[in-house]
Amino acid sequence: MEHNTPRYQRGSIYKAFGAWHVRYRVTENDQRVQRSKRLCDGGRPKGEALRLCDEFMLTVNATRPGLAPEETPIAAFWEATYWPFVVENLKPTTRLGYAQMWSQHLKPHFGSMTLREYRTPTGSVFLTGLAKKYSRRTVQHIKNLASGLFTHAVNLGAIESNPWHDCKILGKTKAPGETAYSGACEYRFRGDVNRDSGRM
Description:
Layout (H helix, E strand, L loop, with lengths): L11 E5 L2 E10 L2 E11 L4 H17 L11 H16 L2 H19 L9 H12 L4 H20 L33 H9 L3
Antiparallel strand pairs: 1-2, 2-3
Helix pairs in contact: 1-2, 2-3, 3-5, 5-6
């Protein structure tokens, strides 16, 4: 029987039978057992196999019994909890914008960080970097989505406070202009995330 809080698993990739696989562990009937999953054809680059491994392990870790909520990786919380909430509650045009901002900006930024690990200064530095390349409106949309995710985690009791609440752009920003997220969904971002995830 395990007495320590379960740790986040990375998984171990290997090549066998002409394919890349990931080896990992799960709890079944109070016993830790090893399992494996085929990721892709063995002719694919190792980097692609690693990426697929990371995506699969997010789902494994998000559903692991006993994992302390604050130790959940942010990306796993998005995949298992926040994105399903978005799909259920928000309009298709808004979902499209969220998916784009997540894959292009937030997922690479969060990496393997957990909900507990994320700090306000990290967000401020991230926003400051974005502000050098994108309009204020675009940066605000990205901030609103990140803050909405953490607000949702607070409301579910996974963490005590939202580190994005006090995140600021440190310095000058680009002049207002066309955002990277144009179309009807653009003008719904702020209202939707505030209405459905709580005030940020």
